[in-house]
């Protein structure tokens, strides 16, 4: 029997805030007898998604701040964290707490959809009414896809055209001034701890993971877990989360009217680090500690009043939010396949090194990869840990690991280097590293951006590559960024800071750092050591360019039967770059096991001027492909449409360049 007055379970997920929360407003509009603000400690994220200590710390910051804000409105209430999977604990809470309504914010991520469908079914069986409201993006991704003809949104132009058929972006709803009491919080039911295997985050732990030992936490107070309970290594980022900090940062940004109105992402400096050149609001949007709708309307208010010349879509702040919606729309349509090549109808197939292993029972990647080339595996490892011998690339990867964030053009540079501009390694390997280390990681945005930068979807100008020497000099000729994140090079002369291997041995000794080896050693005879370049960039760029031309000519997509059964190899010569030998996947696996395919030997010393290659620069902000690398068709007589750049960590914070 339904209670006379609603008893509401409010399930926080991607909306760790009180301001502008349509779902929370819907819960309060029920005028409930009691309101339980809960968070389910989902083992999918604890064990199955790659999450490093920095992003965990950011989440815990957001949860702690939200819980404190709830308690300020009602001293009897807080964020009640339940240490169990939502798929098992919610049905028990419905009964134990006599719940009449379950309310939460809509989440269109592939895993979240599946989880929510299971929970909604359980609620219906228990007679609990479910209310779901959208608040994570400007537009409901499902409605955006529907307005786009049922197709994934692959360009900002498509987003804009689809949005014209929808209502305008909703205005923010008021922040509640009070919250109802929670009811009885007794837990008179059996706790169901999850299985910890497989644990993709085991590498992040230096102690046993124990966050599921007690349903209400070790103190029985439903407290926010700690990094120690998760067994995690300490966080190293200085960036902190929480609604309080998010709103403060937003106020600071909006108070600078000129910055807000003239922000143009390609003009910001990827080498700025203290402070960064962009808003750094993206992790707040990821965790929902800052409403994207509030940000949108605060910016729009400035643009409406600003009298000077303004930046425009796609490079302005509004454009960055539209890119975010574009990727969410793509994932809403494609589901799990957006995050992989296999089965992805809009991702161009490229025979990269280190391809993902796929579970034949469901067509999904397993989280492991084939090692078709030991050399490529070594390159990947050196790229990940910032030991490539290219200071700009290494400094970026070290910043990413330390801070959990790098500028969007920095993300472009390291992604291009790993895929089509150097290593020819599968973009999925890079996406996994970003998933592990980014504090602003979104499945949709991360997957979409890696496809963009690898020229497998959204963008097709694969012949444009970032030079690891010429590009950073545009905004940081002195190399301050490199000196900060690669401190072993801090005393190198300016002319050698991006090419230290060119420094005479006398200059190397004077700077206190020798250029030698492959990154395994850090000192030699009391002197610091920085590795030699792991390959000749110009030579590798040429190899990648030829390979990309061949793959584009073959014109396969991830859903092609030949891609799925491995017979795509029939279309490539055995000598082609990548795991192309044989005629089937079985042949390639045999080759992998025997190591029968060898690559041409490269000279130990890098040769040539590696700074002459054409870099993407602002060209990376020009795209607009509807499928893979195919340009969207233009109407007769119309000029080619300028497309739209990537999102990455879409905005970033303070306004100086270094």
Automatic annotation (TrEMBL):
Q: Where is this region: Disordered?
A: 171-203, 568-658
Q: Which residues bind FAD?
A: 278-282
Q: Which SUPFAM superfamilies match?
A: Cryptochrome/photolyase FAD-binding domain (SSF48173), Cryptochrome/photolyase, N-terminal domain (SSF52425)
- Signal peptide, first to last residue: none
Which Gene3D superfamilies does the annotation name?
1.25.40.80, DNA Cyclobutane Dipyrimidine Photolyase, subunit A, domain 3, HUPs
InterPro entries, sorted: Crypto/Photolyase_FAD-like_sf (IPR036134), Crypto/Photolyase_N_sf (IPR036155), Cryptochr/Photolyase_FAD-bd (IPR005101), Cryptochrome/DNA_photolyase_1 (IPR002081), DNA_photolyase_N (IPR006050), Rossmann-like_a/b/a_fold (IPR014729)
Annotated Gene Ontology cellular component terms = cytoplasm; nucleus
Pfam families per UniProt: DNA_photolyase, FAD_binding_7
Record note on cofactor: Binds 1 FAD per subunit.
Which cofactor does the UniProt annotation name?
FAD
Record GO biological process: circadian regulation of gene expression; entrainment of circadian clock by photoperiod
Q: Where is the composition biased (Basic and acidic residues)?
A: 593-605, 627-636
The record's keywords, sorted A to Z, are: FAD, Flavoprotein
Report the PROSITE patterns cross-referenced here. PHR_CRY_ALPHA_BETA
Which part of the chain is the Photolyase/cryptochrome alpha/beta domain?
6-138
The Swiss-Prot or TrEMBL record annotates one GO molecular function as: deoxyribodipyrimidine photo-lyase activity
Q: According to its UniProt record, which protein family does this protein belong to?
A: Belongs to the DNA photolyase class-1 family.
Q: What is this protein called?
A: Photolyase/cryptochrome alpha/beta domain-containing protein
Species annotation: Letharia lupina
């Amino acid at each position: 029997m339904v209670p006379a007055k609603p008893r509401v379970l409010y399930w926080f997920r991607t909306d760790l805030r009180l301001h502008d929360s349509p779902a929370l407003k819907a819960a309060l509009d029920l005028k409930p007898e009691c309101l339980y603000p809960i968070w389910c400690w989902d083992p999918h994220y604890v064990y199955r998604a790659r999450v490093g200590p920095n992003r965990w710390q950011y989440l815990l910051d957001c949860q702690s701040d939200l819980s404190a804000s709830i308690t300020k409105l009602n001293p009897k209430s807080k964020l009640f964290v339940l240490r169990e999977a939502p798929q098992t604990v919610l049905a028990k809470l419905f009964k134990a707490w006599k719940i009449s309504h379950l309310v939460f914010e809509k989440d269109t991520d592939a895993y979240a959809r599946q989880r929510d469908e299971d929970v909604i079914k359980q609620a219906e069986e228990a007679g609990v009414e479910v209310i779901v409201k959208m608040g994570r993006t400007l537009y409901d991704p499902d409605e955006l896809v529907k307005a786009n003809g049922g197709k994934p949104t692959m360009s900002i132009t498509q987003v804009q055209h689809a949005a014209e058929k929808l209502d305008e972006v909703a205005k923010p709803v008021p922040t509640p001034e009070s919250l109802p009491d929670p009811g009885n919080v007794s837990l008179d039911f059996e706790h169901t701890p999850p299985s910890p295997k497989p644990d993709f985050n085991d590498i992040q732990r230096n102690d046993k993971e124990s966050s599921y030992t007690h349903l209400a936490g070790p103190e029985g107070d439903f407290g926010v877990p700690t990094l120690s309970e998760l067994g995690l290594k300490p966080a190293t980022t200085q960036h902190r989360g929480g609604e309080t900090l998010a709103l403060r940062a937003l106020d600071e940004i909006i108070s600078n009217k000129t910055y807000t109105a003239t922000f143009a992402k390609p003009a910001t400096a990827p080498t700025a680090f203290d402070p960064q050149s962009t808003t750094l609001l993206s992790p707040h949007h990821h965790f929902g500690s800052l409403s994207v709708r509030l940000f949108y309307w605060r910016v729009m208010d400035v643009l409406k009043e600003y009298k000077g010349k303004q930046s425009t879509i796609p490079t302005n702040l509004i454009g960055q939010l539209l890119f975010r919606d574009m990727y969410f729309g793509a994932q809403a349509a494609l589901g799990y396949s957006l995050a992989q090549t296999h089965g992805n109808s809009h991702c161009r197939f490229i025979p990269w090194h280190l391809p993902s292993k796929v579970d034949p029972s469901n067509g999904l990647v397993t989280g492991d990869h084939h090692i078709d080339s030991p050399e490529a595996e070594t390159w990947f490892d050196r790229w990940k840990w910032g030991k490539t011998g290219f200071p700009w690339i290494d400094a970026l990867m070290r910043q990413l690991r330390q801070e959990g964030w790098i500028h969007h053009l920095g993300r472009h540079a390291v992604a291009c280097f790993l895929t089509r501009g150097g290593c020819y390694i599968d973009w999925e390997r890079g996406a996994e590293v970003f998933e592990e280390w980014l504090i602003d990681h979104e499945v949709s945005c991360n997957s979409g951006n890696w496809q963009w930068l690898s020229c497998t979807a959204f963008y097709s100008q694969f012949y444009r590559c970032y030079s690891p020497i010429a590009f950073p000099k545009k905004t940081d000729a002195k190399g301050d960024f490199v000196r900060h994140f690669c401190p072993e090079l801090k005393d190198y002369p300016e002319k050698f800071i991006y090419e230290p291997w060119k420094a005479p041995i006398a200059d190397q000794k004077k700077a206190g750092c020798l250029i030698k080896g492959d990154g395994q050693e850090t000192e030699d005879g009391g002197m610091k050591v920085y590795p030699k370049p792991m390959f000749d960039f110009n030579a590798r760029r040429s190899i990648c360019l030829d390979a990309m031309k061949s793959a584009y000519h073959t014109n396969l997509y991830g859903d092609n039967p030949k891609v799925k059964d491995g017979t795509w190899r029939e279309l490539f010569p055995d000598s082609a770059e990548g795991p192309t030998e044989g005629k089937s996947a079985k042949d390639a696996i045999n080759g992998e096991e025997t190591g029968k395919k060898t690559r041409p030997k490269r000279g130990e010393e890098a040769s040539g001027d590696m700074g002459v290659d054409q870099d993407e620069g602002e060209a990376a902000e020009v795209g607009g492909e509807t499928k893979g690398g195919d340009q969207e068709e233009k109407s007769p007589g119309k000029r080619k449409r300028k497309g739209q750049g990537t999102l990455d960590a879409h905005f970033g914070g303070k306004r100086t360049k270094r």
